Amino acid sequence: MAYRVQGVVVREKNASATIETIIVPNPGPGEVVVDVLTCGVCHTDYHYQQGGISDEFPFLLGHESTARVAEVGEGVTEVAVGDRVILNWRAVCGQCRACEKGQPQYCFATHNAKQKMTLEDGTELSAALGIGSFAEKTLVAAGQCTKIDEDSDAAAVGLLGCGIMAGIGAAINTGEVKRGESVAVIGCGGVGTAAIAGAQLAGATTIIAVDIDDAKLEQAKRFGATHTVNSKNEDPVEAIRSLTDTFGADVVIDAVGRPATYKQAFYARDLAGRVVLVGVPTPDMKLELPLLDVFGRGGSLKSSWYGDCLPSRDFQMLIDQYKLGRLDLEGFVTERIGLGDVEVAFAKMAGGNILRSVVVL
């Protein structure tokens, strides 16, 4: 028998997020129903509400979650009933050209549950990032469940399901930060601050936080920033160069995703340095750079999608670093809220004065 549960739905573009009764079907082959334990309030959910992801309304929001497996479908071997998991939106196929090359983090055919969850009247819901976990239960593909240990704060480790993993991975996986290197991070929201934490975890010795908000810059120090630059008051390129013996940083991470900040990142790196774009641009944005500068500066220009993570490899490893006191995941949890507080959390997030609100069910 299908499950009737409460979930947070947005019915049309820019409509308020409301709690609705949703129908979660029993899992089919390769599918899993989970009891959601926590779900972080991510900018991506806000973008769904604004119509910035797609127009396939109504959406069941939420995706950054810790959960417990409640029921498994036919053929599921990855997890079992009772397992504690983090949900992810990169369920790799194992068969595409990226997977066959041994690069499953770039899988071109990630998959979601085939069945649809619905409203009571039968209207099909589009699950945010194929997850939809602002709900008491949700239906996902088995590969979207990554088993983790029991003895960690669910609200903290669940953030690895999206934004915090994106930032940490941008530094460690995409930027390949090495011990003793210099790193600059432009934009100190949740993802940028996570990139700073990732740079510290990787052993960078100079970590420069760049933002226009002094409060965010002060917060960045807590996660490992050794220097801060308010780009509203000074040229960030010149400031980064002055802090790196005039050479520029080994790795510069753009966690904003705008042409202006990308150019700053490009010119603030060392000649053989790496630029990593992890901030998400909008479809209308264009970038102009002198091609000779691209050629003449060497190094690499990379984009980082989900921090180039492989959940089966990265989630538990980062939880272990958290438990050893090397990664302050709990520090990203600004507040713990209920399902009915998501709309208010969106407003706080838009104001830029919060790292993560986390729904606790």
Automatic annotation (TrEMBL):
InterPro entries: ADH-like_C, ADH-like_N, ER, GroES-like_sf, MycoS_dep_FDH, NAD(P)-bd_dom_sf
Keyword check for Metal-binding: yes
Domain (Enoyl reductase (ER)) ranges: 17-361
Cofactor names: Zn(2+)
Enzyme Commission number(s) from the entry: 1.1.1.306
SMART domains: PKS_ER
MF GO annotations: metal ion binding; mycothiol-dependent formaldehyde dehydrogenase activity
Gene3D superfamilies referenced in this protein's UniProt entry, alphabetically: Medium-chain alcohol dehydrogenases, catalytic domain, NAD(P)-binding Rossmann-like Domain
One Pfam entry name: ADH_zinc_N
Keyword terms of this UniProt record: Metal-binding, Oxidoreductase, Zinc
UniProt keyword Metal-binding, yes or no: yes
Family: Belongs to the zinc-containing alcohol dehydrogenase family.
Protein name according to UniProt: S-(Hydroxymethyl)mycothiol dehydrogenase
